[in-house]
Known about the structure:
By secondary structure, chain A is of the alpha/beta class. Helix content of chain A is 37%, strand content 26%. Chain A has helices spanning 44-51, 83-90, 108-118, 124-137, 153-165, 183-198, 210-216, 234-239, 244-253; strands at 6-15, 18-28, 33-37, 59-64, 67-68, 71-74, 77-80, 93-96, 171-175, 203-206, 219-224, 227-232.
Amino acid sequence: MAAHMVQAEAVHKSFGRLEVLRGIDLSVDPGEVMCVIGPSGSGKSTFLRCINHLEKIDAGRLSVDGELVGYRQKGDRLFELPDREVCHKRSEIGMVFQRFNLFPHMTALENLIEAPMRVKKQNRATAEAAARALLERVGLADKMSVYPNQLSGGQQQRVAIARALAMQPKLMLFDEPTSALDPELVGEVLDVMRGLAEDGMTMVVVTHEMGFAREVGDSLVFMDRGVIVESGHPKEVLANPRQDRTKAFLASVL
Amino acid sequence: MTEIASGAPAQDSGTGRRPEAIKAIPVRHPWRWASAVLVLAFAADVVYTIASAPHLKWSVVGDYMFQRLIREGALLTIELTVIAMAIGIALGIMLAVMRLSPNPVVSWVSWFYIWFFRGTPVLVQIFFWFNLAIILPQLGIGIPGTKIGWFESTNTLIPPVMAAILGLGLNEAAYMAEIVRAGIISVDLGQSEAAQALGMNRLLVMRRIVLPQAMRVILPPTGNETISMLKTTSLAFVASVPELYTRASQISNATFYVIELLIVISIWYLAMTSVASVGQAYLERRFGRGVHTVTPRGPWERLTGSFFGSGVPPQLPLTQRSPDKVI
């Protein structure tokens, strides 16, 4: 049971009368890189947001590292977790957004040390040392005291990845991390993600980058209209899709 | 194609040649000059008419300008403004955060406060606090229905100045709450999501991420409120608080120099509001951090720049780049 980093069983989610997730079953092992592809509106971003409880699921089971997301089970009854514990769980999961969402009133370094200092109560020296190392790792050692609006999109996204890593997460979620970037900036962000994967980070990546999915992904999930249509090894699924919907989607994006 | 290419490049292209900067004769604006003359003539006439009014004693204006009572009144006006605004801002931020709270009780308490204090005139509120002793001679904390507790005479607890501070401050809080709320709502939702995803709790997200960014939207109307408050303090005359306006009216009651004293305090009010506007401009610059690629010039630099500038436009267009504009 606890062997999986993420486990979903029949996860359902509706916004009003719109059913966005209609029964998602999947599991992600520690160290696995899972890529999630699918047309817009297929529910892939919503599923990602459910994993760190930015959205609440309506039915089914969703657990991270063996613990239910947002609930605690006692006997056969579920108890909602108080805010404090939800926050603690979130602090162990890193998330990278399509639009970066860096804090514009803080420098790159301040963006990185904010949560370690305020949430993990690290002292400034410790947090800064870790932040410097991380910025160096994403190739931005010279941009520490620069505000986000002075950085290119690719640089901003690399800072955002470093910011998530600063909390030393056991799982990283990427929500279309390169979709808002100019084409020539996509590569630098994917390189950082590839490096992370090689270091053994568990990652769930919602993406449109089929090349990345093929080369870096350990598994691939194709979602459409709230369900998983097809899943398997990326090379397998991308080369020989079995379902008609997968074939049609791949034909339209490749 | 080749012709356009050879004429257009701003940077050195393959040819290594950069064309000269454009020197053109600017468009003439004769009507600007004509209208300026007309406006100046009209203004001069108005000033002359008032200045030469037969029964206006300018010497009295000079006598009272820095008279002790007026100086003390001006100081009290500033004190009232600072204290009332401090209460207004602190309580206003609290009310705004409460209003947006997921806790319905807290949210409704805030709604009711704003509804009540924004819905009744400040004049009435000041007068109410001033006259509270009529209906409640004593105020205090204790067990209801008994004499156990701590009580004090209302007149001691709420002297006239306190009545004015309560009236002005509590009323201001209701307006500030709405200004702060507008600022909070203006911050991109992605900001609080990113902060939440890092494990920050609601109050931390508000204090560290949302409010600092909301400041940019909150500051201009707050400056406006401060300037408005400088003048609204004159309503404290209903509680006989000896601020600037009360002092002026007391003096003119005794001397019958009504207009002269009004001129004196108008000059004082104008001076105080002018200083406040300059302070506001500097504060706005401070909180524009990370938004403007070019730091906007301060008011003083802008003024000198437009008179003695080197041909650079007095205010550079600010390049605003926010990540969500990138598609």
